[in-house]
Amino acid sequence: MSNLEFEKPVLELEAKIAELRNVTGDDSMNIADEITRMQGKADRLLQQTYSKLTAQQKVQVARHQDRPHFLDYIDGLIEDFTPLAGDRNFGEDDALPAGLGRFKGRSCVILGQEKGNDTESRIKRNFGMARPEGYRKAQRLMKMAEQFQIPVITLVDTAGAYPGVGAEERGQAEAIAKSIETCLRVKTPIVSVVIGEGGSGGAIAIATADKVYMLEHSIYSVISPEGCASILWRSAEHANDAAAALKLTAQDLYQLKLIDGIIAEPVGGAHRKKEETIASVGMQIENALDDLSNISSDKLVQQRHQKFLKMGREAA
């Protein structure tokens, strides 16, 4: 497991517990008691640490390389997943996998960003930063979902859309705008969950949904703290200040009425108990789809429009 600096006291305790578990001898009863005592201390310390995370610490947790990624959710929640590739215009984008599957017996289209979990897969997935063809593929699949009247599930985890020259030449901005437009227009339920980073237009391009949820320690913002700091302070060293000012945590966004709910993570973050996190996300998506299934398609689109049009007005 990759280490976070603020977790260091907990990790040191857990390392000592691991050492004690490997000790054998006549004094095993005393060792077991010591392990129990230390485990209790480690659990309390972890609880205290995660109950008062700063915005920048939440950024670190959201980016943790061991958090469950898109493909982990596919394995844990979707049956009979069939990947669908290509935008029918330029090519395939591995940063934004998508396809058809069954979610708890319900046919659906599911798509999202995948960052990868090792050097090879991260390069293949472009670290979850999609190019225009990824967003055009998303549009194609959302329209297909509308045609067959099945819901769309999107899982957001990206630092932002890829800003490379090639992506800009192929119309990155237009692709993102059209993807947002498609989200607003399709007459089928859309449920989105920010599972890690929700960065800029690259995130909202697939998160303009009927219901938008965030994991407890995920983030969602118009720009990264480092990018914001480099613009405002001319130095990335002020990333802590930028993270606090951006109001990018799930708690901030829920208070501002920009998301519909927060999905609790296990104590210590999603990277500590992946299966439990995936199950919690699945339960929230199921409840949302149940609620949305009773709304007519025309009313669904109308409510979606109103949802985004009133953002910022109520908070103001």
Please, could you describe this protein's structure?
The protein has 316 residues and is of the alpha/beta class. The longest helix is centred in the first third of the chain and has 23 residues, at 28-50. Helix 1 (8-21) runs antiparallel to helix 2 (28-50). It is built from 14 helices and eight strands. It is 48% helix and 15% strand.
Secondary-structure blueprint of this entry?
Blueprint: H1 8-21, H2 28-50, H3 55-62, H4 70-77, E1 78-83, E2 98-103, E3 106-112, H5 119-124, H6 132-147, E4 152-158, H7 165-169, H8 172-185, E5 190-199, H9 200-204, E6 211-215, E7 219-221, H10 225-232, H11 239-246, H12 250-255, E8 261-263, H13 274-292, H14 297-309
Parallel strand pairs: 3-4, 4-5, 5-6, 5-7, 6-8
Antiparallel strand pairs: 1-2, 2-3
